[in-house]
Design brief:
This protein is mainly alpha-helical. The chain folds into two domains: 184 residues, Periplasmic binding protein-like II (D-Maltodextrin-Binding Protein, domain 2, 3-Layer(aba) Sandwich), CATH 3.40.190.10; 62 residues, no CATH class. The protein is built from twelve helices and two strands. A two-stranded parallel ribbon has the order 1-2. Helix 2 packs across helix 3, helix 2 packs across helix 4 and helix 11 packs antiparallel against helix 12.
Protein backbone atom coordinates (compact mmCIF):
# COMPACT_ATOMS: atom_id res chain seq x y z
CA UNK A 1 0.00 0.00 0.00
CA UNK A 2 2.91 2.34 0.75
CA UNK A 3 4.51 1.37 -2.57
CA UNK A 4 1.24 2.19 -4.33
CA UNK A 5 1.07 5.52 -2.51
CA UNK A 6 4.60 6.34 -3.60
CA UNK A 7 3.78 5.44 -7.20
CA UNK A 8 0.76 7.76 -7.18
CA UNK A 9 2.89 10.59 -5.77
CA UNK A 10 5.52 9.95 -8.43
CA UNK A 11 2.80 10.31 -11.08
CA UNK A 12 1.80 13.68 -9.64
CA UNK A 13 -1.29 12.50 -7.74
CA UNK A 14 -2.43 12.46 -4.13
CA UNK A 15 -2.93 8.92 -2.79
CA UNK A 16 -5.26 9.51 0.16
CA UNK A 17 -8.24 11.48 1.36
CA UNK A 18 -8.43 11.12 5.15
CA UNK A 19 -11.38 12.52 7.04
CA UNK A 20 -11.33 13.19 10.78
CA UNK A 21 -14.07 15.83 10.95
CA UNK A 22 -17.39 14.59 12.33
CA UNK A 23 -18.75 17.41 14.47
CA UNK A 24 -18.70 16.53 18.17
CA UNK A 25 -17.46 13.06 17.21
CA UNK A 26 -14.42 14.32 15.28
CA UNK A 27 -11.46 11.98 15.46
CA UNK A 28 -13.27 8.66 15.29
CA UNK A 29 -12.19 7.79 11.71
CA UNK A 30 -8.58 7.98 12.86
CA UNK A 31 -9.22 5.53 15.69
CA UNK A 32 -10.31 2.97 13.09
CA UNK A 33 -7.01 3.42 11.27
CA UNK A 34 -5.05 2.87 14.48
CA UNK A 35 -7.12 -0.15 15.52
CA UNK A 36 -6.61 -1.75 12.11
CA UNK A 37 -2.89 -1.04 12.24
CA UNK A 38 -2.41 -2.26 15.81
CA UNK A 39 -4.29 -5.49 15.11
CA UNK A 40 -2.08 -6.17 12.09
CA UNK A 41 1.26 -5.00 13.47
CA UNK A 42 1.05 -6.36 17.03
CA UNK A 43 -1.42 -9.23 16.69
CA UNK A 44 -4.75 -10.09 18.33
CA UNK A 45 -3.36 -10.88 21.79
CA UNK A 46 -1.73 -7.48 22.15
CA UNK A 47 -4.86 -5.89 20.66
CA UNK A 48 -7.00 -7.55 23.35
CA UNK A 49 -4.61 -6.43 26.08
CA UNK A 50 -4.80 -2.87 24.77
CA UNK A 51 -8.61 -2.84 24.67
CA UNK A 52 -8.75 -4.22 28.23
CA UNK A 53 -6.04 -1.82 29.42
CA UNK A 54 -3.76 -4.69 30.38
CA UNK A 55 -1.01 -2.74 28.65
CA UNK A 56 -0.69 1.05 28.85
CA UNK A 57 -1.23 3.47 26.00
CA UNK A 58 2.47 4.26 26.22
CA UNK A 59 3.33 0.65 25.27
CA UNK A 60 5.70 0.44 22.26
CA UNK A 61 3.13 -1.49 20.18
CA UNK A 62 0.53 1.26 20.65
CA UNK A 63 3.05 3.98 19.88
CA UNK A 64 4.15 2.12 16.75
CA UNK A 65 0.54 1.92 15.53
CA UNK A 66 0.16 5.69 15.87
CA UNK A 67 3.45 6.17 14.03
CA UNK A 68 2.31 3.93 11.17
CA UNK A 69 -0.84 6.05 10.93
CA UNK A 70 1.27 9.19 11.02
CA UNK A 71 3.40 7.87 8.17
CA UNK A 72 0.37 8.50 5.97
CA UNK A 73 -1.75 11.10 7.77
CA UNK A 74 1.11 13.49 8.54
CA UNK A 75 2.69 13.27 5.10
CA UNK A 76 1.53 16.27 3.03
CA UNK A 77 2.42 14.42 -0.17
CA UNK A 78 0.18 11.49 0.76
CA UNK A 79 -3.00 13.29 1.88
CA UNK A 80 -5.26 15.82 0.23
CA UNK A 81 -4.67 19.12 1.98
CA UNK A 82 -1.99 17.67 4.24
CA UNK A 83 -2.63 17.42 7.99
CA UNK A 84 -4.98 20.43 7.83
CA UNK A 85 -7.08 18.66 5.22
CA UNK A 86 -7.07 15.50 7.35
CA UNK A 87 -8.40 17.47 10.32
CA UNK A 88 -11.05 19.45 8.45
CA UNK A 89 -12.44 16.98 5.90
CA UNK A 90 -15.84 15.59 6.87
CA UNK A 91 -16.04 11.79 6.80
CA UNK A 92 -19.21 11.76 4.72
CA UNK A 93 -17.93 14.23 2.14
CA UNK A 94 -14.48 12.70 1.76
CA UNK A 95 -15.22 10.07 -0.92
CA UNK A 96 -16.26 12.74 -3.41
CA UNK A 97 -12.57 13.59 -3.81
CA UNK A 98 -12.14 10.22 -5.52
CA UNK A 99 -14.64 11.11 -8.22
CA UNK A 100 -13.84 14.73 -8.98
CA UNK A 101 -12.55 15.91 -12.36
CA UNK A 102 -9.60 15.99 -12.22
CA UNK A 103 -9.26 13.35 -9.50
CA UNK A 104 -8.22 14.91 -6.21
CA UNK A 105 -7.30 11.65 -4.44
CA UNK A 106 -7.29 7.95 -5.22
CA UNK A 107 -7.85 6.01 -1.97
CA UNK A 108 -10.06 6.29 1.06
CA UNK A 109 -10.24 4.00 4.10
CA UNK A 110 -13.72 3.48 5.50
CA UNK A 111 -16.30 0.84 6.39
CA UNK A 112 -18.87 -0.51 3.93
CA UNK A 113 -21.51 1.99 5.06
CA UNK A 114 -19.66 4.73 3.17
CA UNK A 115 -21.23 3.43 -0.02
CA UNK A 116 -24.45 5.13 1.04
CA UNK A 117 -22.68 8.50 0.94
CA UNK A 118 -20.99 7.67 -2.36
CA UNK A 119 -24.23 6.67 -4.05
CA UNK A 120 -26.21 9.65 -2.74
CA UNK A 121 -23.55 12.14 -3.85
CA UNK A 122 -22.66 10.37 -7.10
CA UNK A 123 -25.69 8.32 -8.17
CA UNK A 124 -24.22 7.68 -11.60
CA UNK A 125 -21.35 5.61 -10.21
CA UNK A 126 -21.42 1.81 -10.48
CA UNK A 127 -20.04 -0.25 -7.63
CA UNK A 128 -17.29 -2.59 -8.75
CA UNK A 129 -16.84 -0.70 -12.02
CA UNK A 130 -16.31 2.96 -11.19
CA UNK A 131 -14.92 2.19 -7.74
CA UNK A 132 -13.75 -0.89 -5.90
CA UNK A 133 -12.38 -2.04 -2.57
CA UNK A 134 -9.41 -3.98 -1.22
CA UNK A 135 -8.83 -5.29 2.30
CA UNK A 136 -6.51 -3.35 4.58
CA UNK A 137 -3.18 -5.09 3.95
CA UNK A 138 -1.15 -7.08 6.48
CA UNK A 139 1.77 -5.39 8.22
CA UNK A 140 3.45 -8.23 10.08
CA UNK A 141 5.33 -10.24 7.39
CA UNK A 142 4.35 -13.50 9.13
CA UNK A 143 0.65 -12.76 8.61
CA UNK A 144 0.78 -12.11 4.88
CA UNK A 145 -2.13 -13.90 3.27
CA UNK A 146 -3.54 -14.51 6.72
CA UNK A 147 -4.31 -11.00 7.95
CA UNK A 148 -6.89 -10.37 10.69
CA UNK A 149 -9.99 -8.29 10.04
CA UNK A 150 -11.36 -5.41 12.12
CA UNK A 151 -15.15 -5.31 12.33
CA UNK A 152 -17.86 -3.13 13.81
CA UNK A 153 -21.61 -3.10 13.63
CA UNK A 154 -24.97 -2.61 15.27
CA UNK A 155 -25.59 -4.31 18.60
CA UNK A 156 -28.99 -5.54 19.82
CA UNK A 157 -29.49 -5.01 23.57
CA UNK A 158 -32.35 -6.60 25.50
CA UNK A 159 -33.40 -4.88 28.71
CA UNK A 160 -36.17 -7.31 29.60
CA UNK A 161 -35.77 -11.07 29.72
CA UNK A 162 -39.29 -11.74 28.49
CA UNK A 163 -39.89 -14.58 26.01
CA UNK A 164 -41.20 -12.27 23.28
CA UNK A 165 -38.18 -9.97 23.63
CA UNK A 166 -35.72 -12.85 23.34
CA UNK A 167 -37.67 -14.30 20.42
CA UNK A 168 -37.56 -10.99 18.57
CA UNK A 169 -33.81 -10.57 19.19
CA UNK A 170 -33.22 -14.10 17.93
CA UNK A 171 -35.25 -13.32 14.81
CA UNK A 172 -33.19 -10.23 14.03
CA UNK A 173 -30.04 -12.31 13.61
CA UNK A 174 -31.77 -15.26 11.99
CA UNK A 175 -31.00 -16.33 8.46
CA UNK A 176 -34.45 -15.20 7.28
CA UNK A 177 -34.19 -11.72 8.80
CA UNK A 178 -30.63 -11.20 7.58
CA UNK A 179 -31.67 -12.11 4.06
CA UNK A 180 -34.04 -9.13 4.22
CA UNK A 181 -31.18 -7.01 5.57
CA UNK A 182 -29.02 -8.01 2.60
CA UNK A 183 -31.56 -7.89 -0.22
CA UNK A 184 -33.62 -4.86 0.81
CA UNK A 185 -30.95 -2.71 2.43
CA UNK A 186 -27.82 -3.94 0.68
CA UNK A 187 -25.94 -4.40 3.94
CA UNK A 188 -23.65 -7.09 5.32
CA UNK A 189 -25.31 -10.01 7.05
CA UNK A 190 -24.45 -10.96 10.63
CA UNK A 191 -25.46 -14.56 9.92
CA UNK A 192 -22.69 -16.67 8.39
CA UNK A 193 -25.24 -18.93 6.67
CA UNK A 194 -26.50 -16.15 4.41
CA UNK A 195 -26.08 -17.15 0.79
CA UNK A 196 -23.45 -15.11 -1.11
CA UNK A 197 -25.78 -15.17 -4.12
CA UNK A 198 -28.04 -12.65 -2.36
CA UNK A 199 -25.40 -9.94 -2.54
CA UNK A 200 -26.12 -7.86 -5.62
CA UNK A 201 -23.65 -5.09 -4.79
CA UNK A 202 -20.15 -6.39 -5.67
CA UNK A 203 -18.48 -4.26 -2.99
CA UNK A 204 -20.64 -5.72 -0.23
CA UNK A 205 -20.20 -9.20 -1.66
CA UNK A 206 -16.42 -8.80 -1.59
CA UNK A 207 -16.57 -7.52 1.99
CA UNK A 208 -18.71 -10.53 2.90
CA UNK A 209 -16.07 -12.91 1.57
CA UNK A 210 -13.33 -11.01 3.43
CA UNK A 211 -15.30 -11.25 6.65
CA UNK A 212 -16.37 -14.85 6.21
CA UNK A 213 -12.84 -16.05 5.42
CA UNK A 214 -11.04 -13.98 8.05
CA UNK A 215 -8.75 -16.22 10.12
CA UNK A 216 -8.94 -13.75 13.00
CA UNK A 217 -11.33 -10.88 13.63
CA UNK A 218 -11.65 -8.33 16.37
CA UNK A 219 -14.34 -5.79 17.17
CA UNK A 220 -13.75 -2.05 17.03
CA UNK A 221 -11.57 -1.29 20.04
CA UNK A 222 -12.79 2.21 20.85
CA UNK A 223 -16.37 0.95 20.92
CA UNK A 224 -15.44 -1.51 23.67
CA UNK A 225 -13.47 0.91 25.84
CA UNK A 226 -14.93 3.07 28.61
CA UNK A 227 -16.60 6.12 27.11
CA UNK A 228 -14.10 8.55 28.62
CA UNK A 229 -11.37 6.83 26.61
CA UNK A 230 -12.95 5.19 23.56
CA UNK A 231 -15.08 8.16 22.54
CA UNK A 232 -13.17 10.70 24.58
CA UNK A 233 -9.42 10.97 24.86
CA UNK A 234 -8.80 8.48 22.03
CA UNK A 235 -10.81 10.65 19.62
CA UNK A 236 -9.24 13.88 20.83
CA UNK A 237 -5.81 12.26 20.98
CA UNK A 238 -5.95 11.44 17.28
CA UNK A 239 -6.81 15.07 16.54
CA UNK A 240 -3.99 16.28 18.79
CA UNK A 241 -1.48 13.97 17.10
CA UNK A 242 -2.40 15.14 13.60
CA UNK A 243 -2.38 18.75 14.88
CA UNK A 244 1.26 18.40 15.84
CA UNK A 245 1.18 17.56 19.54
CA UNK A 246 4.15 15.27 20.35
CA UNK A 247 3.06 11.64 20.30
CA UNK A 248 4.46 10.83 23.74
CA UNK A 249 2.38 13.62 25.25
CA UNK A 250 -0.73 12.40 23.39
CA UNK A 251 -0.30 8.83 24.64
CA UNK A 252 0.45 9.92 28.20
CA UNK A 253 -2.74 11.99 28.24
CA UNK A 254 -4.85 9.07 27.01
CA UNK A 255 -3.16 6.75 29.51
CA UNK A 256 -3.94 9.10 32.40
CA UNK A 257 -7.61 9.09 31.44
CA UNK A 258 -7.57 5.29 31.01
CA UNK A 259 -6.15 4.70 34.48
CA UNK A 260 -9.10 6.57 35.94
CA UNK A 261 -11.75 5.20 33.56
CA UNK A 262 -10.83 1.53 33.95
CA UNK A 263 -10.73 1.83 37.74
CA UNK A 264 -14.32 3.02 38.01
Amino acid sequence: MIALSNAIVADGGVPWIIDLESGAASGWPGTDWIEDILLRSAGPDTYDQWVNHDIPWTHPAVKKAFEYFGQIALNPAYTLGGPTGVLTTNFGDAPSALFSTPTHAYMHRQATFIQGFIQRQNPQLRAGIDYDVFPFPPIDPESRGNAPVLVAGDVVNCFNHRPEVIQFAAFLISEAAQEIWVTELGELSSNKNTSPSLYINPIIKKAWHILLNAPISRYDGSDMMPRAVGTGTFWSGVLDYVSGVPLDAVLENIENSAVEAYSD
